[in-house]
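Dear colleague,

Following up on yesterday's call, I've attached the two folding results inline so they're easy to grep. Please treat them as preliminary; we haven't cross-checked anything against experimental data yet. The first protein's sequence and structure tokens come first.
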Amino acid sequence: MYDFPIALQLYSVRTDMEVDFKGTLKKIKALGYDGVEFAGLFGHSAEEVKKMCGETGLTPISAHVPYAELLKGDETFKIYSDIGCKYIVIPWINAEYLAGGEKNAEFYENVKKFGELANKYGMKLCYHNHDFEFEKVDGEYKLDLLYKAVSPGLLSTQLDTCWVNVGGENPADYIRKYAGRLEIVHLKDFAGTKGGNMYALIGNDDSKKEAAAGSFEYRPLGSGLQNFPSILDACKEVDAKWVVIEQDEPSMGKTRMECAEASIKYLKSIF
């Protein structure tokens, strides 16, 4: 029914990557993944990373690169182009840079510059959402205002289906909304409700509050609330090129790698 190549966002196994970069890539390939999306290079050069991907048979499709690194310009974009990435992704931005924030105009202009640089190096720039982009300014979501402000030629969307759901929208509907502008989709499952320790789990909440009963939890695909057949149907309709599995933190008593294994097993069971 589905024939998407499957990648793993390496943030999901970041502690493994830090200890043994190439060995972790080998394990990922053995689980059946076709490609990887980077979240840091752990001190390795572009040449080393490209070689390791080639030797393990994994396609380096994309990279999540922090805003501060993107601001370095050519230096950053060349690294990921040299690795062979086709997409470079803004993974997170603080609220002050989004619509309604004091640095919003500055951010929009920089995104346009990033898009031009990505194109210069043969890549596409994407934006990866969380749920807070689904807050409204003048009746429109901050996420939609970003895509209105920057042309499709300079900015594509990488929808994170978990955060679309947590933000209050149907992931499949939102995938269809950005048909023609979306080539890679993040597949992520979750349980619990919005709030509590959500951002502590992804390292962006200084409070680090203890999780309350029933609070938000990342889950391997098929173990949570997401309707993945519906999501994949939408991906097929819009001609998405890749699906990327991501689980920010392990759960259900599994290690990070065990969660990655459970997710791809489930996904292939419905393919």
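Below is the second protein, in the same order (sequence, then structure):
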Amino acid sequence: MKYLLTTVIIGIMACAGLMGQETDTTIPMIYIDSTGQVFTKTDAPAYIFIAPAENESELTLVPSTDKAANPMEWDGSGKHYIMHKDLERKMNIRFKVMADGTPPKTNLTFSNGLIFRYENLIFTESNAVATLTSTDDMSGVHSTYTSTNSGKFSVVSQPITFNEHDESVFAFYSIDNVGNAETPQEYRVITSSNARVQMDNIYFETNSTLLNSQSTAELQKLLAILKQFPKVVMEIGAHTDSKGNVTYNQQLSERRAQAAVDYLTSRGISKERLTAKGYGETMILNECKKGVECPDSKHKENRRVEFVITKVNAE
């Protein structure tokens, strides 16, 4: 009987997982675009089948003991060729397959209402509007998914509006046409004007107002933000632990807040844009209130600096 080499089937009986996210869609590991170009996920296995010439639908998997033959594995991303000899036409036939091993990249862009970004923290005006734009250099973007406050991911509905006096955790990621999924990006989005944001790594030793190198590095980030977004006016608040005298702690926190403000104003930020305020031990974060014994590692959590946006000036 005459047999015909008919096809290469990629990722048989397999679908791409979506990074463990709870979405309603699975993406096949093979995709053919409008030009006929075949794309496959880099880690998808490829199988070669044959069929009788008079019945091409009767596929049979080509057996082989060679581990490199069936199934085959793609040697990284990019162009790959599968070739076989056509004995009737006395020529080699080459099939090009594009192996895609890179997920899309998605960016969150505000068309209006952005006040500023601080690492994974976003401050916006009321009803700020944003869009998600995703790009993929090979098989193309299949879908973009979003989630709010750790809810189920669903296909993005654009544009995205962040409402007044709202605070949420907003996450998103995209998947390409062969199932490569981007690692989800997560932002805390704040539209409330009185939200307090604790600055990482700005702590003080007991009874001290000195800023160490770790603290100044964090203040450098805030300095860059204030220079980039000159409309923002904020309060810098400092807090102490509960050890010691209440009055002393209040005065110490005021000096600490002023130390942070002085650092920023000495580097070009107008004094009119910053207010120093000490809170003493009135806003303890943990169980270490007056009279409760705690290790210093716990007390340290309360010796902190926070900022609050108090105003956004007009242009």
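For the second protein, one point worth flagging: Residues 202 and 215 are 4 Å apart (CA to CA).

Best wishes,
A.L.
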